Automatic annotation (TrEMBL):
Family, per entry: Belongs to the carbohydrate kinase PfkB family.
InterPro entries on file: 1-PFruKinase (IPR022463), Carboh/pur_kinase_PfkB_CS (IPR002173), PfkB_dom (IPR011611), Ribo/fructo_kinase (IPR002139), Ribokinase-like (IPR029056), Tagatose/fructose_Pkinase (IPR017583)
Protein name: 1-phosphofructokinase
CDD domains in alphabetical order: FruK_PfkB_like
PROSITE patterns: PFKB_KINASES_1 (PS00583), PFKB_KINASES_2 (PS00584)
PANTHER family in the record: 1-PHOSPHOFRUCTOKINASE, 1-PHOSPHOFRUCTOKINASE-RELATED
Length: 319
């Protein structure tokens, strides 16, 4: 398949491994690594590793823009960069030996009106080549309009291209109104969007159903260690697997969405693939994305359930 991703706020991802983090202390890190990051960038990276044609549109500028492009160059992703005056951000992740992952995401460079216009023009030009999917992902940097993902979804629809969105906050609220074919919030993002806590399967399903009445196609809600729930035309399904100790959860959500779009079959089968790709990602350090060997090994451990009981607590889904 052919995928186009757009990441308005890409990043250089810096991961630092520590035994344990103590605020206010000097730490001697066990290891450190740097990778190309940002949600759409990661989606493109993992899809490319699975043999798909993946283009990634991203604004790039400054020393860290050059660094990001250099890191991305060997990864079979067709990078389509939009030059900007500001410098690409660095996001730092601290991973402790028990798998606890702490993320420090910078706001990103200011996008000027001309940058936003250039980004939109680039996406429109790329959509004209008729990819199978547009994936519009991640936070929006300062200066970007809150409805930027929504604009990309509408541009895709005008050209008959299916769209998937993974974002948060005001950008997520605006994207919902554009009715993407697939939305991938995590549990916290969904709760924030709806302005209420989500404790049970029924809470999550009702929240997802509400988004569907507003025009969203399938809602794929990732639940961290508790797997993921899918709500769509074929009903509700859950997939997850035995507890594991993550090496780094950075990029797991991106791999989950990518696996979902890669997969064929019933809704439950596509969900199972999504969860396998997410689980494979957490077993790799930093923002490293899994290849086919990792995702198929992870698939063997995935369990699925159609119509999980609405009273089940999300945190108990695995038991
Ligand atoms: N601690 C964990 N144990 C097992 N699987 C995990 C863990 N954290 C994440 N995953 C897998 O990665 C997927 C995405 O993780 P999640 O944290 O929900 O996404 P996001 O990174 O978007 O917040 C989950 O659905 C799950 O399959
Ligand atoms: O755009 P945001 O929300 O700040 O997130 C950016 C960060 O998210 C990532 O794309 C990882 O995302 P997930 O862990 O949700 O899959 C990192 O590569 C990047 O540093």
């Amino acid at each position: 398949m052919r995928f186009l991703t757009v990441t308005p706020n890409p990043s250089v991802d810096h991961t630092v491994e520590l035994h344990a983090l103590t605020r206010g202390e000097v730490h001697r890190a066990l290891a450190g690594s740097v990778e190309a990051g940002g949600k759409g960038v990661n989606v493109a990276r993992v899809l490319a590793r699975h043999g798909h044609a993946a283009g990634a549109v991203l604004p790039s500028g400054g020393v860290d823009g050059t660094r990001l492009e250099t890191l991305l160059a060997p990864q079979d992703v067709r990078a389509v960069t939009v030059p900007i005056a500001g410098s690409v951000r660095t996001n730092t992740t601290i991973v402790e030996h028990d798998g606890t992952t702490t993320k420090l995401n910078e706001p990103g460079p200011e996008l000027r009106a001309a940058d936003v216009e250039a980004l939109q023009d680039t996406v429109s030009r790329e959509l004209a080549a008729n990819p199978d999917w547009l994936v519009s992902s991640g936070s929006l940097p300062p200066g970007a309009p809150a409805d930027l993902h929504a604009r990309f979804v509408r541009a895709a629809r005008r050209l008959g291209v299916r769209s998937a969105v993974d974002t948060s906050g005001a950008a997520l609220a605006a994207a919902v109104e554009a009715g993407p074919d697939v939305l991938k919030p995590n549990e916290d993002e969904l709760a924030e969007l709806l302005g209420r806590e989500l404790h049970t399967v029924g809470d999550v399903v009702a929240a997802a159903a509400e988004l569907r009445t507003r025009g969203v196609g399938e809602v794929l809600v990732s639940l961290g260690g508790a797997g993921a729930l899918l709500v769509g035309d074929e009903g509700t399904a859950w997939a997850g697997g035995p507890a594991l100790v993550p090496l780094s959860t950075v990029g797991a959500g991106d791999c989950t969405l990518a696996g979902f779009l890669h997969a064929r079959g019933t809704a439950t089968q596509r969900l199972a693939t999504a969860v396998a790709w997410g689980r494979a990602a957490v077993l790799l350090p930093g923002s490293t994305v899994p290849g086919p060997a990792g995702t198929s090994a992870a698939a063997a451990a995935v369990r699925t359930l159609d119509d999980p009981h609405p009273d089940t607590l999300v945190k108990d889904l695995q038991r």
